[in-house]
Amino acid sequence: MQRILVTGALGQIGSELVPSLRARYGADGVVASDVRVPAGPVEDEGPFVYADCLHIRQIDDAVRRFDVGTIYHLAALLSAVAEERPRAAWDLNMGGLYRVLEVAREHGCAVFLPSSIGAFGPGTPRIATPQDTIQRPSTMYGITKVSSELLCDYYHRRFALDTRGLRLPGLISHVALPGGGTTDYAVQIFHDAIRFGRHICYLREDTKLDMMYMADALRAIEELMEADPSRLRHRNAFNVTSMAVTPAELAAEIQRHRPGFTLDCEPDPVRQAIADSWPQSIDDSAAREEWGWAPRYDLAATTREMLAQLETRLAAEASSGPAPRAGRDAG
């Protein structure tokens, strides 16, 4: 069986996708790669290779060396960081993808690429955003995501490359720390609830955005890549979601478990403008129809799981030191 290569393996999605894939396909069957040298489970539990996606030879060498048949390409700059560093975002998000697709074309690899609700824009219907609709994003991150979807579609049509992707919403995780995304408040709020009993949000309290618990996102990725290709009409990329919430609604759910928790909002103009250009809710019926997608975590279940997991983790970190911050990733 050919191996799987995960780029950006130490980032927000990769830090959890790699262990999940190794549990599914075997530790030796999943090769983690990043531009940082890892420590901990990613390094200890399976093969790791240093690979910069901006250097095509490094990706090609990894594919050859490990006999890779599928690439999960996660290396990217997230939305808020991309606005601060637009040139770097274009170079990595597009240049890295182009090199990965070229290597995949040469070796016949399948490719998974995460897209985002950031691929939509101010002209997109904001309620129940359709699978096929106007995509005119106003951010560099969104521009790279639309371009990535189109480029993957091109490689599928032109070269019969098996490319697949998901438009992921904001991801809520108890493992990865915030890494520069507009929806990162939905992770930080849980840390702050446990540590301080208070969170200061950089978005307005009524800013509704789609969210998903990481366990659902990982399952969606894996199920899509195992889906019968003959059923897939929308390859790059499927809308998926599990909940649409505001900071106020998320805070209210946390208060059910921690009654003293308080939320204050001090909107950051850059992140608020990004959030206001994104959908409030999306229609994921295509994913449900074409490969059987169905979420398992709603707001209540996500909140219970996040608080329980973080209480244990933060108590352990208090005695052993802080966890490393998330690096370059997608989402």
Question: From N to C, what is the helix and strand string?
Answer: EHEHEHEHHEHEEHEEHEEHEHHH
Assign the CATH topology of the largest domain. Rossmann fold
User: What is the CATH architecture descriptor of the largest domain?
Assistant: 3-Layer(aba) Sandwich
Superfamily (CATH H level) name of the largest domain: NAD(P)-binding Rossmann-like Domain
Beginning-to-end CA distance, first to last residue: 29 Å
| Percent of residues in β-strands | 15-25%
Largest sheet: 7 strands, parallel
- Number of contiguous helices: 12
Overall mean pLDDT stands at 92
Quick synopsis:
With 331 residues, the chain is an alpha/beta fold. It is 44% helix and 16% strand.
Account of the 3D structure:
The structure is a single chain. The protein has a 7-stranded parallel beta sheet with strand order 3-2-1-4-5-6-10, sandwiched between helices. It is α/β, with parallel strands linked by helices and 331 residues long. The longest helix is centred in the first third of the chain and has 22 residues, at 86-107. The chain has helices at 14-25, 41-44, 56-66, 79-84, 86-107, 140-159, 185-195, 214-226, 247-257, 269-276, 285-291, 299-320; strands spanning 3-7, 30-34, 48-50, 68-73, 110-116, 163-168, 170-172, 198-201, 209-213, 238-239, 243-245, 262-265. The protein folds into 2 domains: 3-169 and 212-239, Rossmann fold (3-Layer(aba) Sandwich); 171-210 and 242-282 and 295-320, Alpha-Beta Complex (UDP-galactose 4-epimerase, domain 1).
